[in-house]
């Protein structure tokens, strides 16, 4: 592990080179090697959200969990954004300084943590359709009264509403919208004049098709 003075010298040289060249490449390697495993572990065990709360950084709550292969992708996205943010602040005259009270690795991890909030939001927008995999949308919606605030829940309804707009079949769309509103399959079946079992199969065929389109099932 590099000493504080070594990192400070690298940073100062990288800054003098406008964050290009060998000093910057060496520094980015050290910073990434420090932040990436810590972020990956925090995302995997979800302690990342406690860290965001401690730093009073905004984030969208979600019952969705990244799959194992997505954890490092999220961490890499946050680290890449963190590097860009570190450079941007330095060029604006708000960059890290040796006498600022924080060592460079901690400073950079804070940048990555801040940018994870944006990476997480992007991931949710791309994967919000997975909410449809829950067997009971009504149970999922009830979480809004306990764990999630109205502003968080609005994100998911927006995602699902946009997804619903892509459905051409009016019956499937009706089933989906009623499920999102918390209706059980029997009530939906009565509404569309169909059997409960047929309604249920149609709903889950839609979900399976979406999963195949995403490459999650063969």
Structural summary, described in words:
- This protein is mainly alpha-helical.
- It folds into two domains: 4-129, no CATH class; 134-213, no CATH class.
- It contains ten helices and no strands.
- Mean pLDDT is 79; it is low at 134-147.
Q: Which labels suit this protein?
A:
single chain; 218 residues; mainly alpha; 10 helices; 2 domains
Topology, pairings included?
Blueprint: H1 4-16, H2 22-44, H3 48-54, H4 68-91, H5 104-127, H6 137-142, H7 150-164, H8 170-180, H9 185-192, H10 196-213
Helix pairs in contact: 1-2, 2-4, 2-5, 4-5, 7-8, 8-9, 9-10
- Report how far apart the termini are: 45 Å
Strand count, sense and barrel status of the largest sheet are: none
Order of SSEs: HHHHHHHHHH
* Protein structure class: mainly alpha
- Counted by DSSP, the helix tally is 10
Mean pLDDT: 79
pLDDT < 50 stretches: 134-147
User: What share of residues is helical?
Assistant: 55-70%
Q: What integer value in Å does the Rg equal?
A: 23 Å
What's the total number of strands?
A: 0
Number of structural units classed as domains: 2
Task: Report the principal-axis shape.
Answer: elongated
Residues in β-strands, percent: under 5%
Protein name: Sigma-70 family RNA polymerase sigma factor
